[in-house]
From TrEMBL:
<protein>
    <submittedName>
        <fullName>Regulator</fullName>
    </submittedName>
</protein>
<dbReference type="Pfam" id="PF13424">
    <property type="entry name" value="TPR_12"/>
</dbReference>
<feature type="region of interest" description="Disordered">
    <location>
        <begin position="12"/>
        <end position="32"/>
    </location>
</feature>
<dbReference type="InterPro" id="IPR027417">
    <property type="entry name" value="P-loop_NTPase"/>
</dbReference>
<dbReference type="InterPro" id="IPR011990">
    <property type="entry name" value="TPR-like_helical_dom_sf"/>
</dbReference>
Amino acid sequence: MVAGSSVQARDIHGGVHLHHAAPSPRRPPVPRQLLPVPAHFTGRARDLRALDALRAARAGGSAPQVAVVSGPAGVGKTALVSRWLSALAPEFPDGQLYADLRGHTPAGPAGPTEALAGFLRALGAASIPGSLAEQAALWRSLTADLRLVVMLDNALSAAQVRTLLPAAPGSLVVVTSRHRLTGLGVDGAGFHQVGMLDPAAALELFTRGVGGDRVAADRPAAREVVGLCACLPLAVCLAAAQLAARPRRSVAALASALTRGRGPLETLGVEGDTAVRTALDESFATLPAGAADAYRRMGLLPVTRYDGPMVGAVCGVPPEEAEDLLELLLEVNLLEETGTSRAPGARDRYRFHDLVRQHAAGRAETDLPEPERRVTLRRFVDWCLATATAAEALLTPSHRNLPRDYGRQPAPPVAFDAQAPALAWLDEHRYDLMAALRLAAREGWDASTWQLVDAMWPLFLRLRPYDLWNEAHALGLAAARRAGHRAGEGRMLTSGGSGLCHTGRFDEGARWFEDALRHATEDGDERQRAQALHGLGRAHFGAGRTRDAEVHYGHALTLREAIGHTRGAALSRVCLGEIALAHDRPDLAAGRLATARAELVAEGDSYDAARALALLGHATARGGDARTGMRRLLRALVEFENAGSVHWQARTMEYLGQACQEHRAPTEAVRWFTRSLALYDPVSPTDAARLRTRLRETGPGPADAR
């Protein structure tokens, strides 16, 4: 039984009639990514008024409003902007986006593609273009008519920000930075400098964190603590958290600890960095041994977000114990909450302030011997590999057939009980996995490098992060070659070649597949040889060389049938069906696709079975049987909706529109093309342009085709 639209097509004499409206495309939830406002936020009324005035002075322009909020590290720029934007949120119904540009982290600033890809996914893009130029173009297209708030935190330079500016004049972009970023003046930016809290506000912040009674009992000591913290909010909050966590300690004792071994107050430093360092040292000294160990090891990791399973893995403790350690660090203000994970178990996630992360890394360098630091990093890589492999085994079991070599016995991976949470974990941890991959490549852990790329296959296949796909496989291929692992090298060549083809680099992809074919032939690996031939078919087909593609697909099919690789044979048959359609031979295509559909259903490959069904429906309709063809297309559409495949939903809707168009039902055709365009718009500018052309040629419809 097929839900949704139905087709009346018993006797077709020029019209195809849809009795129900085409299903609406599923929209992603409106993004709400702003960080929570700190509970004890205080003392910034003047700054908030200045930001309101800054915005009012730049109202009504033809470009998005841009505000740069600058000031020293730890002064509270992020808290201030989070507070300001939280009050403005109702004015921006299309969402709030946040990106940490990591302008001052040891690993270096975030690249623009990382932030852009995150924004595009938040706005509903199911696949992200591979190049920065394409991503930026799609970003401008998607945001042209939206009212968004975009917060770009910890920016290093104007150039890092400029690519991330949306196109809509109704949007607001706020940038925080330690630098003034005056170069953004050419983009119409306004500027606001944040200074230290005044002493009264700093004392109020301290009092809120500690409790009024304790401060009232020794107000002179409280003022001394605030002075020692240079009225820097981060240092004040750290000092207050220490006292809140130790109810029996007096304010005077804290003041004494902060001055122990130090010279006059003038040595605190111009921007209060020394005040923060002193407060951090004191906070660290009060930590229990387990929390101190977690703090050090977290500082070593090349990531910006942490959760219980990750911290448990690097510390060698169960995730539940790690959650308790994270709570201890949160209690003394050494961690900040960033929200709840979408991955299994809905775990909380945390982050370090930049200065705290640097302090944690420094403690690790001081307190942990070099072999122990390497153990920590090795545990991180092994845990990433183990968990990605667990997700891979569930999402693409036929792909999970190469070895896994761990430097140490890995911590238990995250347990997945279904495909959806496994894919959600890969999605949420994609940059953690890439950080682990780069770390493994840098450390010369070659087996872990290429195997981690291999384990990430479902991420690349389902979510299509093309920039990461290509970077990962370049690293993986080099590592497999250094390791002399022939099967690993072959896998990197074929899965990497697919990524190149997806980004339109068909000739380069063909070279990768040719290398894979040569290696497989030398090794006598018939299955891998068939995979390389199939990949060559794909590269030639993408480049428009359909005759060459047909030859390679045909060779792959023959070889796969000979070795009993039923699923692989079915996939080659699907591709041969596409070629038959390209040659306008719908009957031949339908025969190939019907066989492939039956084989894929029998193999339990629901996603590729739906692809075969969509193409079969298209071929059937083109062959003259509109009723059967559209019934198959509607069934395929339901299957793609269940699988969450936006690209193939759009393609199937386009096929439905073509079927209606060919059978003289222009109103129904316009409906399907409009629905298809709505899905293609945030996914593929090329496909969207084709749909707009179809709509113009078909005539006016119920929606604006632009």
